[in-house]
């Protein structure tokens, strides 16, 4: 049984064998993976020790205190948060052994080829085709909102393998080689001026059948694993009191007495309370997870986070008055990581608009809460049993 | 500022779950919505049989009272669970006023003194005591200006206190007064010469209100000076913090009831709960209630552990939970359509309780104003 003391001992042995001060960062990360200390809840041999997920914090704290390099997780969010759990759940042994180590060390960046111009909230309606050709698949279609596509070595891809089946049944899940001929990545500029995301055009891209994850036609079930992990990743981060957006707003209020009005004061206090309560709700969810009894609160955390980020960033821009009229930089940049709070107020306001769209729109999340948590009756779904090819488009 | 984020246990423990099950079973059997509705215009100040079963049968009256005075010696966390259940059933019992607010006021006095110890023992056994302040009084308000009651050198009390919650059923009054040496807290037996209790017609018929007129009645001094001020403040802080749990239970009933109704009510050939316009409102309410639970648990835990963060936790809980309970009741009514406007359907009991609770122990705006000072976000 792996416990705290055991993990501390293993961490100490890793640090002794590979002193961070004299070890190249990548070598250290590989050694950490091989020691099972990358993600302790993963299986042995795949970077973990089959230990409780909550014990990861023990390892992380010891390594941070020793000045060990990390794998820059912000840059690897798709791989760590989505591709890895999906590979773990549905991949073959060979796929897991090939991909998980360089995914975790950051040697290979991943991206996600799910959304399409014609398939956003209704992801299962996607039109990218995968046609079997012997032991290969030929992919044709267009994907959109792909962060990191320009940096990625690999992608998780959902494509339609049987248009004659209803939309959920005709899908198959693949690992796509982003260096394969026929993969074209174009930046997609956002309202912030930068291009975090890309459009990806797939034209006659050939993938070996060994890159398939799960059975043919099982793509929707596999994709759901990915999407559940996405929502956990977006909504689940831990923050201290006045962490994140509200901390910036509160600091602005304290620093700029000349801008204060009664109306802004009332609204700030309401937002402060909302932010604190949302923090506590997240903390309660974490305490439930620690006890191994996750509550349904997770379904709602992203909703609350998006609403708060939008309201607070809007408040801040208004509070800053003259300073809110200017913008730091409209240059088309291609950031490797996204920091919702890292730039000035105008950027924060504009970027937060995406929070209620990306990773499931707030409207879709409300449907999920209503139907799965509250058990309310579903909307009638006229497209559920119709062959995909016969759906109106 | 606020550099240290206070840690607290936001879950429910096993004994809390057991206590909840006992209280819920009692209230389900004795205080269902139909019972409360039928009793509403009876003129009785509270459901005395139910109070006895809750206070003595389950022992809920003594949860906050130390064992040496006949209580259970548990904490605000357990009392909060009781309040979730009394809120869920809008039970007509003086639990918040007597077993939380009055008991906490007494605990703030010198419990080594006989009159304080005797009163604690009586309240633990189900005697109803109330703190004689207007029900909207926020924790930081008493003694900011002179209280409405004046005590002369002999301890004779004079003055009028308006809208005192559960005063009609009170046997003991704890009276903050302007005494000969400044702030003081006195005890008065309610059925005594010189105490006139004038019941009001309350918006919330499940929490009776009365105006108390004290006309020279002799009070027993319990505390004076800073001790009296602190005892009253602690009582109202505990009351406001745990009121959030009552509001949580109330809101949960409203959401559960709305979901049940819209699942079975059919219009346009579909259950109305299948329309997104309605289900999104219930989903949003669910999220608000999940958040209210975290806020209420945090406040209860901070009160239970004597955390220095308790004033912030309580202000956050009241500022957040009061409007959630009101919204839950209003949504529940609207989602019932015409049925929601009838006297026969119990949702109006929850609406009236929620709206009155919003004004109780400091309205949300007062708690936000308190927060402005506590977390250093000063007004212009």
UniProtKB/TrEMBL annotation, chain A:
- Any one cellular-component term (Gene Ontology): plasma membrane
Q: The Acyl-CoA dehydrogenase/oxidase C-terminal domain covers which part of the protein?
A: 217-374
Pfam families per record: Acyl-CoA_dh_1 (PF00441), Acyl-CoA_dh_M (PF02770), Acyl-CoA_dh_N (PF02771)
For this UniProt record, the keywords arranged alphabetically read as follows: FAD, Flavoprotein, Oxidoreductase
Q: Which residue intervals define the domain Acyl-CoA oxidase/dehydrogenase middle in the entry? A: 111-195
Domain Acyl-CoA dehydrogenase/oxidase N-terminal positions: 23-107
Q: For this protein, what is any one GO molecular function term?
A: flavin adenine dinucleotide binding
Can the keyword Transmembrane helix be found in this entry's annotation? no
What this protein needs as a cofactor is:
FAD
Q: Which Gene3D superfamilies match?
A: Acyl-CoA dehydrogenase/oxidase, N-terminal domain, Butyryl-CoA Dehydrogenase, subunit A, domain 2, Butyryl-CoA Dehydrogenase, subunit A, domain 3
Q: InterPro entries, per this entry? A: Acyl-CoA_Oxase/DH_mid-dom, Acyl-CoA_Oxase/DH_mid-dom_sf, AcylCo_DH-like_C, AcylCo_DH/oxidase_C, AcylCoA_DH/ox_N, AcylCoA_DH/ox_N_sf, AcylCoA_DH/oxidase_NM_dom_sf, Mycobact_Acyl-CoA_DH
Similarity-based family: Belongs to the acyl-CoA dehydrogenase family.
Please state what the protein is called.
Acyl-CoA dehydrogenase
Query: Which species is this record about?
Result: Streptomyces benahoarensis
From TrEMBL, chain B:
Gene Ontology MF terms in the entry: acyl-CoA dehydrogenase activity; flavin adenine dinucleotide binding
Q: Which cofactor does it need?
A: FAD
Q: Does the keyword Oxidoreductase apply?
A: yes
The record's annotation in InterPro entries points to: Acyl-CoA_Oxase/DH_mid-dom_sf, AcylCo_DH-like_C, AcylCo_DH/oxidase_C, AcylCoA_DH/ox_N, AcylCoA_DH/ox_N_sf, AcylCoA_DH/oxidase_NM_dom_sf
Q: Which domain of life is it from?
A: Bacteria
Q: Which keywords fit this entry according to its UniProt record?
A: FAD, Flavoprotein, Oxidoreductase
Which SUPFAM superfamilies does the record associate with it?
Answer: Acyl-CoA dehydrogenase C-terminal domain-like, Acyl-CoA dehydrogenase NM domain-like
Protein's UniProt keywords contain Oxidoreductase: yes
Domain Acyl-CoA dehydrogenase/oxidase N-terminal: where? 14-100
Provide the Acyl-CoA dehydrogenase/oxidase C-terminal domain boundaries: 231-373
Show the Pfam families listed in the entry.
Answer: Acyl-CoA_dh_1, Acyl-CoA_dh_N
Query: Which family is annotated?
Result: Belongs to the acyl-CoA dehydrogenase family.
Q: What is this protein called?
A: Acyl-CoA dehydrogenase
Source organism of the structure? Streptomyces benahoarensis
